Amino acid sequence: MRKILLASLFLLASATTFAGGYRVGLQGQRALAMGHTGVAYVNTAEIAFFNPAGLVYLENKLNISAGGFGVFSSVAWQNESTGQFAKTDSPMGTPFYLYGSYALTEWMSAGLAVYTPYGSTVEWPTDWAGSHLVNNIELSAIFVQPLLSFKINDVMSIGGGPIFVTGNVNFNRNANRTLTDLEGNRSNITVDDSGVTNWGWSLGALFNVSDNFRIGAHYRSEIILESTEGTATFANFPNSPLTPSNGDTSFEASLPLPAELTVGLSYDFDKWVFNFDFTRTFWDVYTDLDIVFGNGRESINPRNYRNSSLYKFGMAYAPSEKFTLRAGYYFDQSPIRSGYFAPETPRNDANGFTAGLSFDISNSFAIDASFLYVRFKEINESYDYVDDGSSFGGTYKSSAFIPGIGVTYKM
Is the four-CA dihedral 345, 312, 310, 101 of positive or negative sign? Predict the structure, then answer.
């Protein structure tokens, strides 16, 4: 055996909650309750994420929104030919957000956005049929973004700022389908890295067509995370010149966080608000994931993602001054091509159903809550690029439900 089967070993690309590929769309309670729409909806500091151009139109001088979510997801897999079955047993994920804005003048506002657009934890059973591709992974990426928003005139505003990203990952998989040491322990590799950083940027524009109708657009740049200081641990390999030595070594890998373009509109009248957003995610940057280990081994893993679209609809109704009710729906197109469907990111086309409410405790303080149920299309697919020339496939059935709670403050 000249080359241990290291295919599909990757840095930050696996295991996510939803929203196509490894993107997690949980960036605000009010927005999520309305189908995760918000590029043209000026309501709270949540606009800092969806379109910073809207910060300058917030009515209050100081605006703060903060909250988090509990992600409960599961993936079931079965090979219909052999009857083999496995189901993930993943702990709860906890993405969060914090947004703030301050009106410096009538035509300029400053803001700060901290959020987690990538991250989750997935655990498959020990020695399941796909353990040569993944056993478990813990992933997180935090974005920190200072913002400025400028009112050009009463019709148009622009806003944006630099993005600082820091990420962490811990990932484990078996070396191949059968390899063990003399005691029968499966040979495996663990990749661990933290503090992987880089910079990006975003820019948005907002147009006030009328007092009740807005159109918005927001672009978030591609960011490449490069890992050069992490540790790869090879464990339980037999003592053979054909296999790697046990112990720690270095590795190098990179992962693209793709660019996104969102356009949308918001219309309100009386007690109602209606939103529509369209997001195009430029996943075609993710062609492969090559990993070079310090012990001379390497892994070439094709991904060949395609660009994907996300269609989002939302509405809100305020029956009183204290309560606002919200609901929404989105369709999320998977970027994963046929033949590249790996158990690390078993994310097919998805339908998301959302709801939520806000309760104003006072003129300054409100509590926001949301709920999301995601149903992924059941699919029979495979990953056809294992090093030994084989493929791994089966039927995948996935779902997730995500409650969230947050607070809004304005002064």
Answer: negative
**Segment 182-231, tens digit of pLDDT:** 999 999 999 899 888 999 999 999 999 999 999 999 999 999 888 888 89
How far, rounded to the nearest angstrom, does the alpha carbon of residue 180 sit from its chain's CA centroid? Answer: 35
* Contact (Cβ atoms closer than 8 angstroms) between residue 186 and residue 179: yes
* Entry field: residues in the chain: 411
The answer to whether 228 and 2 are in contact (CB under 8 A) is no
Distance of CA 198 to the CA centre of its chain: 17
Rounded Cα distance, 393 and 349, in Å:
17
With the CA atoms of 50, 70, 313 and 362 taken in that order, what torsion angle do they form, in degrees rounded to the nearest 10?
-70
Average pLDDT, the chain: 89
Span 262-281, pLDDT tens digits: 999 999 999 999 999 999 99
End-to-end CA distance of the chain: 67
Structural tokens at position 70: 């509990």
Measured CA to CA, the distance from residue 262 to residue 354 in angstroms comes to: 19
**What's the distance, CA 125 to chain centroid?**
23
Nearest Cα neighbor of 57 from 42, 70, 71 is 42
Token couple for 321: 């001054």
Cα separation of 219 and 205, whole Å?
A: 9
Read off the pLDDT of residues 32-68 as tens digits, 9 standing for 90 and up: 999 999 999 999 999 999 999 999 999 999 999 999 9
φ, ψ at 53 (rounded to 5°): -60, -25
**H/E element, 386:** none
Which residues does residue 378 pair with via DSSP β-bridges, in sequence order?
Answer: none
Closest C-alpha among 403, 407, 396, 310 to residue 88: 396
Q: How many Å apart are CA 302 and CA 315, to the nearest integer? A: 40
The count of other CB atoms within 10 Å of the CB of residue 76 is 16
32 contacts 67 by C-beta, under 8 angstroms: no
The C-alpha atoms of residue 25 and residue 179 are separated, in whole angstroms, by 38
Question: Is residue 354 within 8 Å of 33, Cβ to Cβ?
Answer: yes
